[in-house]
Structure formats: structure tokens, C-alpha cells
Amino acid sequence: MSGILIIAEHRRGELRPVTLELVSAAQGARRGTGDSVAVALIAEAPECLAASVSVQGVDEIVSVKVSAREFDPDVLEAAVRALIEARKPSLVLVPHSIDAFGYAAAVAARGGYGFATDVFRFEYSQDQWIATRGGYGQKVNVEVDFPGKDVVLLAVRGSVFKPPEAAASPAQSTFTAPSVPSRVRGLEFFEPSSSDDVDMAAAEFILAIGRGIGEEANVQQFRELADALGATLGCSRPIADAGWLPKGRQIGQSGKTAAACKLYIAMGISGAIQHLAGMKHVSTIVAVNADAAASIFSIARYGIVGDIFEIAEALQEQIK
Ligand code: FAD
Questions:
Q1: Which of the four pLDDT bands, split at 50, 70 and 90, describes residue 160?
Q2: The dihedral of CA 75, 78, 84, 85: what is its sign?
Q3: Would you say 88 and 151 are in contact if contact means Cβ atoms under 8 Å apart?
Q4: Taking the model in full, what pTM does it have?
């Protein structure tokens, strides 16, 4: 068993950025083993994606043509299983994403492979793969090993590894995946749109509210505070799920990334990894939370352990 196999993720003909993060993730690992890195493009038209993964760190692009226009977990599972059986990689990397949730665990269980999700660090040490993931709501880091497993499949957390920028010309190959009946039928692709025009990705100053605000009626107080501060109002997922703010204002893994943000004030947000995925890169993060042990404080530059309503009122007073 040797080599690292990356399963590329794409949507509607475009490579998802997390794929390139996996390429970077593989670099550190292969230094230990001298492994080559192959990226599998499992798609209806894999040739259209090849240019996007022709980056430094990729030795080979494996095109796997399948008859699935949209993501199909059955098709992915069959193709990935066949790839692993044929190529016998030591390590398989997939994103820790909604798509991978649909096939990765099944591949690992059926193949008897080592498996860990939400991995943010891994290395080859003393003849085995060791993966690190969070535990107990990110309060501890857990090292996972895989005794007796020749193949290890890791679902790697997004926004941890910086994607490579330099272009390259990897070798190209093709692979024929078994054709399997699919239980999924795509009817329509639906892109949730925000019901207001705010572009969270472009906002430089975000005041984000979380479940700590308690109830919908309290949104207004923080909307007024954001306006007074000149900030764009964002939120964690429960707030968007409850319909208290439009989905387009949600920051995080399944929401927007605060890409241009320089100052992020998180009020009543615990700091779940899915929220951090969209904002932890921001240079100045200020967190207000009543719980001194909240995870958000681990990435905040400035932390206030206190009541968000009291702090909001004090800020309004200051502005006046
Ligand atoms: P909670 O975790 O409930 O935290 C509320 C916080 O408020 C607590 O820390 C509490 O101490 C504090 N608090 C309460 N009252 C006060 C007060 N009066 N003053 C001060 N502090 C107070 N979440 C996202 O945000 N974005 C995503 O994109 C996202 N995507 C996800 C994708 C997947 C696949 C999954 C499984 C989950 C996703 N989530 C996402 C949900 C995520 O796991 C958390 O559930 C969510 O971020 C929690 O939101 P929260 O911090 O607002 O709420």
C-alpha cells in the first residue's frame, strides 16, 4: 500500500476550493513516506476539471468518467471503492463536507479501512498514520491511530490548509468505474439566495449574533448596534435556520466566508467549528460570551466574558 489518493470535490462543473487544500495537506504527509499524490476527478466530464487541479504537489490526475450530472453518493461510493481496490493507496483524503458525508463512511466501513472525520492534522509516524481531530466540542484534541489498517481514509476539515498557487503539469490517466444503479434523482439545482443584497464576503467589519440573543425580538437591538458601529450584521446558523436573519447573512461552513473581513465581533456565539470555518482567519476577532470556556475565545484576539445585552447597551452609550 502506498501513495496518497485525493478525491476531488466539485459542483456544477467547478472544482470546490477544498480540493486544493487537500493537495497542500498531502504535502506535509508525503515528506514522511515519499508517497506520490494522485487526485481523482470523478465526474460526468472530468476533463473539464483537470486544469483546476494542475497545481504543484499533484503527481497524477486520474479521470473517472461517470454518468451522474450532479453529486450522487452511490456513484461516488462505487467509484472510490473501485479506485482504492485497484490502486491500493495507503492514505485517501476527502473533504469533511456534506458531499463526503454521503459516501466516505460507507466506503471505509465496507472496505474495512481506518477512518476519521473532521481531521485537521495528520502525519506518518513510526510506520502508521496518526490523525488529529477535535473532541468534546473542540475542547480537546484527539489523536487517532488505525492499528492493523493498510488503508486509512481521512475526511479533512476545510479552511485549515492553504491551497497551493503554483501551476504544474501532472501526469494524466483514466480509470473506468463500475456502473451502479443510483437511488438519487436530481430534479433541480437550488442555490439558496439571500433575501437582501448584503454581500457578507465583501464586508470588512462584521458584527455577528448567535443563539445567545435568545429570541427574535432581540435581533433589532443588535441590528441597531451594527448600524451605529458601521458594521454588517451577520449570524450563526441557528439564527438563519430560525428565519430571524436571511440565510445570506450566515457565516460558516454552510454559509458565507467572511473573506474580506478585518474586524469580527461575535456576540453570543459559542464557536462551533462550522462557524469558525467562515471567520477564524479574520485578523481581529472580538468575542462576547457569558461562558468563559466557550470555544470562540480560543481564536479571539479580545474576549469579554459577560452578558451580550449589557455589552451592547454599553457600546450604544459610548457611540452616543
Ligand atoms: P450555541 O452553540 O447555542 O451558542 C450560544 C452561545 O451564546 C453559548 O456559547 C452561550 O454561552 C452564549 N450565550 C447565551 N446567552 C448569552 C448572553 N446573554 N450573553 C453572552 N453569551 C450568551 N453553524 C454556523 O454558525 N455556521 C455554519 O455555516 C454552520 N454550518 C454547519 C454545517 C453542518 C454540516 C453542521 C452539522 C452544523 C453547522 N453549523 C453551522 C452549526 C454549528 O455546529 C453550531 O450548532 C452553531 O454554530 C451554534 O450556533 P451558536 O454559537 O449561535 O449557538
A1: confident
A2: negative
A3: yes
A4: 0.71
